[in-house]
Amino acid sequence: MDGLDVSFTLLAFVLVVAYHLYLYIRINHTPHVVRFSKINMLRILWVDSVLGGKKDVMVVQTLRNWIMSSSFLASTAIIIALGILNMALTAEQQKHTPEALWIMKLSLLAINFFLGFLNFALAVRLYNHLAFLLNIPLNDATYTDFRQFVIKTLNRTAYYYNVGMRHYYFSIPLALWLLGGFWLLLGTLVLVFTLYRLDFGGNDMQWLQTE
C-alpha cells in the first residue's frame, strides 16, 4: 500500500468517526434537530396509544413486522459474514495487493456484518420482550413507571436496529476498499453525505415540537 493509498484510507476512517462524534454531540445537546430523536417521540405517542386502549391486533401486527424485518436482516448479515470469512481464508488475494492486507480488508468487512448481525439479534430479543410487556394488565399505581420502562425498551430496540442498518451502510465503502483506498474514500464521502441527509434532513416533523 503506497503513501497516497494510506492517506485515503486514514481520511475515510477519520471522516466516519468524526461524523458520528458530531452526531453524538447533536443528539445530546440539540436532540430536536436529529431525526432519530424525533422518531423516538413518535414511538412515545405509539406506546401511549397502545397502553391507552385495547389495540391488540395492531400491536401484534406491528411487532410481527419489526421482528420479521430484524430476523431477515440478521440472517442475511450472518450469511454474508460467514461467506466473506470463508473467502478470506481460502481465496487468493487481489493482484498487486499483499496477502496480509487483502485478508485484513476481508476480515474487517466480515466483522462489520458480524456486528450488524449482533445488533439485529438484540433487536429481535427486545421486540419479543415487548410483545409480553404490551399485554400486561396495568393499574393506576404502576402505570407511570411501566410506561417509562416500555418506552425505554422500545427506544433501545430501535437503537439496535438503527446501528444494525448502519453496519449495512458501512459495508459499501468497505467493499469498495477492496479496489483501493481512493474508492474507500469516495464511498465514505457518499455515505457520510447520505447519513447526514437521513439524520438531519428536512423539517417535516415540526408538528412534533412543543410550544
TrEMBL record:
Transmembrane segments: 6-25, 66-89, 101-124, 174-196
InterPro entries, A to Z: DUF599
Keywords: Membrane, Transmembrane, Transmembrane helix
One Pfam family matching this protein: DUF599
Name recorded for this polypeptide: DUF599 family protein
